[in-house]
Amino acid sequence: KGFIEPAYTGVGLNQTFVNHGKADSRGGEIGAEYDLNKKITVLANYALNQVDYKSTSSRYYNPRHKANFGFTLKNLIDKLTLRVLAHYVSRSEINTTAQDKVNDYVMANLWLGYKVNDTVEVALSGYNFLHDKHAENIGGDEIGTRILGSVNIKF
């Protein structure tokens, strides 16, 4: 029923944490993943998190709704696999002031992987490829588009 925040009596690992205020939290999550055939998989999930704060002095980052949808196309061309994921996060706030909120956002990610052989896979990941400028948490920097390359080796 309570929630925890730093008491700011220490630094780093030596901080003291105390219960501060009261809140009732309830929610749930439902999801499914389904193989349409040997090459196509779809997935979706939804999470609800309802928090009722008993104290108005402290309200914390709490998006009520989160949803994900995606699909994977396996062996698109030879050993090439594509995965597309979309993430929705609803508005959240920390207090009642306008600067202490994160508006709802949708972020779309891509993953493209090529299986060189049974032990080596090279991949390219694109995060937020629709260029939706948003912060993911209160006080955080705006998230831009990121592209990462990787090589995975199984031993």
Write up this protein.
The chain is mainly beta. 0% of the residues lie in helices and 59% in strands. A hairpin with a 4-residue loop joins strand 2 and strand 3.
Please identify the structural class as seen in this structure: mainly beta
Distinct helical segment count: 0
**How many strand elements?**
12
List the helices and strands in order: EEEEEEEEEEEE
Shape: elongated
Helix and strand topology:
Elements: E1 2-6, E2 17-35, E3 40-53, E4 65-73, E5 80-89, E6 92-93, E7 101-102, E8 105-115, E9 120-127, E10 134-135, E11 142-143, E12 146-153
Antiparallel strand pairs: 1-2, 2-3, 3-4, 4-5, 5-8, 6-7, 8-9, 9-12, 10-11
Question: Could you give a quick summary of the protein structure above?
Answer:
This protein is an all-beta fold. It is 0% helix and 59% strand.
Question: Can you tag this structure with a few keywords?
Answer:
155 residues, mainly beta, eight-stranded antiparallel sheet, two-stranded antiparallel ribbon, 12 strands
